[in-house]
Amino acid sequence: MASTTIKSQGIRNTSWAEGELFTWHGAEFLFIPAMMVVGIVGNLLVFYIYHFRWTSNSVTLFKRMLAVLDLASLTLACPALLYLTARSRSSAFVATCIFTSFVALGTAIASSCVLVIIAVDRFLKLCLLRKTGVGPRLSKQLFAVSVIFACAINVPCVWIFGMSTIYYQNYHVQITYCFISNESKNTPIFLVYSALLVFVFITVSTVLVVLYYKIVKTLRDLSNKHDELKRRPSLATGTEALKKEKQSQVMRNSAMVFIAVTVVFFASYAPYFVTLVLSMTETSVEGAMSPAGKAFYDLAKLCPLVNNMANPFIYSFTSDRFRDEVKKMLTFKTCEKGFFRRRALSLGSRSQELSHFSDSRES
């Protein structure tokens, strides 16, 4: 997450400026645009398919919410990050840095809140057997609250983020990048903001672990019951038994998809947290790196972008129907019935989830 200022000690740098820039920021210039293109195309496909091609239910609504947040990060934060990387001496550097940090952290917090909403919905349906779960209307309201909460909690970014520098002593090069400014470190507002972020992270992680533990346990119990029924042919062939098995299969598939989304979310942020701690405590480690070492270090900082583009791939791997819709779009078959013609809304989210069973391994 850096931009560049290159200086030499004693000897004036006469090499090609763009060559120097790419030497120290090549990983960023290659990785960020690639994630942007793949992520924007993928999330637009997700939003289009689940909004226009499929009838609406709680599962498609949750996926659209995550796609909107990922698109916000990719279209707002990533271009600004590229600008910071290329134009470290710009007069707009600090303002752009604050905006980038606000959007990136805001979408991350809002996404984590949406993951909690999804987990609660799956818990209500699977463990407490409530047909409506959270419900589409309440889900939309909670989504709006999550976005407002994420914006409110990130207001301190205005006073915390700014210009920071790292000096690479072996190469006599100084890199300027967007990070917590030196002036804001150890200030009360920074300490309070850090404590809030830690509290949110621990709370979200704990809630997700507890809920998904109960969900997985319930799914395991259901699987054992169905295995028992299969060993008793007289019960396994009954209409009611087959219906319950299909219902359990649908709920299991959708739950596993969202578990995968949650795991990828936290896994993508793990390398970033490591670099964050190192940047805050051991600046000498980064200063001793070579350009190649810095490239890997920058990729670790940019790992959260993987989360922004990963969900479309998860949906594609787990849903035959989603892949079929993508193929139809690529062959322009969607134009035959109207490209932006939306399917009729379903009367019940649970009944619609069950109707997808024959078309997909996941709804």
From TrEMBL:
Family: Belongs to the G-protein coupled receptor 1 family.
Name of the molecule in the record: G-protein coupled receptors family 1 profile domain-containing protein
Cited CDD domains: 7tm_classA_rhodopsin-like
Residue ranges of every copy of the G-protein coupled receptors family 1 profile domain listed in the record: 42-315
Originating species: Candidula unifasciata
A GO term from the CC aspect: membrane
Gene Ontology MF term list: G protein-coupled receptor activity
Gene3D superfamilies: Rhodopsin 7-helix transmembrane proteins
